[in-house]
């Protein structure tokens, strides 16, 4: 299975996303079952955020992991821009930890840029890391210009990962961002790695070339889409599913090795960018 190393911690390259989970009490048992299925299949990363359902996703994760050994988990959460100040961030993180039922997260991300000066946010992220409430910190929805600005700050290069939208139908980050992050040993976390219905003009999973590659590997189209994302070095994918079978399949996609011929076929369907594009954001 492909792996990614974040701040010295090696984790399987496919984890579990939780956006939109925890919103419907009637689905709680099913969603917890899906998280358990993903962990049983070998996932370690669970990605969540205080924004997701105004904390309901974190509460759901907390219920799902209460009997799971902490060292079997790599927990990521995120702070909203409105809470990313010296005055508010620790209170925000404490609330996330309480909902998750843990004393620390493994990675705490600045969800997207807001009005607080970047240096203030970064210094507070570093302080909370040194206080042990998170093992590492990072950023989300940052592009190359943002990262260059970050790297000029005293604590900026302490960032452990950047999380952005990336999938076969949304390849803009390949033009310069992935290369910049590789050059600076900054792992990349891909959200919406199989595409999002409201983001893409067509469904990636129904593309003939994707289906051809899936048949070659006796895999589902979604597994191929995930395998493509994590075929990039130091890229972690966090697909979300509330279905236990699908969640297991997602995690097992990390075992699929795409050939040069597979990659060529996928490139023909969805070519790599030839110029800098605006960062895709959901």
TrEMBL record:
Species of provenance: Secundilactobacillus mixtipabuli
Domain of life per record: Bacteria
GO molecular function, one term: oxidoreductase activity
Domain NADP-dependent oxidoreductase, first and last residues per copy: 13-270
Record protein name field: Aldehyde oxidoreductase
């Amino acid at each position: 299975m492909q792996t990614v190393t974040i701040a010295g911690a090696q984790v399987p390259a496919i984890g579990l996303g939780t956006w939109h989970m925890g919103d419907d009490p009637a689905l709680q048992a099913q969603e917890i079952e899906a998280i358990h299925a993903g962990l049983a299949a070998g996932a370690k990363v669970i990605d969540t955020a205080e924004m997701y359902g105004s904390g309901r996703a974190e509460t759901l994760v907390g219920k799902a992991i209460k009997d799971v050994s902490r060292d079997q988990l790599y927990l990521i959460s995120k702070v909203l821009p409105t809470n990313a100040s010296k005055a508010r961030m620790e209170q925000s993180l404490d609330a996330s930890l309480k909902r998750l039922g843990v004393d620390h997260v493994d990675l705490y991300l600045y969800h997207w840029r807001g009005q607080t000066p970047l240096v203030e946010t970064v210094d507070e992220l570093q302080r909370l890391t040194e206080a042990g409430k998170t093992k590492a910190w990072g950023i989300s929805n940052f592009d190359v210009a943002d990262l260059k600005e970050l790297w000029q700050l005293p604590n900026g290069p302490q960032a452990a990962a950047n999380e952005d939208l990336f999938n076969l139908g949304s390849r803009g980050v390949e033009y310069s961002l992935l290369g910049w992050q590789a050059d600076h040993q900054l792992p990349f976390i891909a959200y919406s790695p199989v595409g999002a219905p409201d983001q893409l003009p067509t469904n990636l999973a129904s593309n003939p070339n994707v289906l051809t590659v899936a048949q070659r590997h006796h895999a589902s189209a979604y597994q191929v889409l995930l395998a493509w994302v994590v075929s990039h070095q130091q890229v972690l994918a966090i697909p979300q599913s509330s279905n236990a079978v699908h969640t297991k399949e997602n995690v097992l996609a990390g075992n699929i090795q795409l050939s040069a011929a597979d990659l060529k076929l996928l490139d023909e369907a969805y070519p790599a960018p030839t110029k800098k594009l605006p960062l895709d954001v959901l």
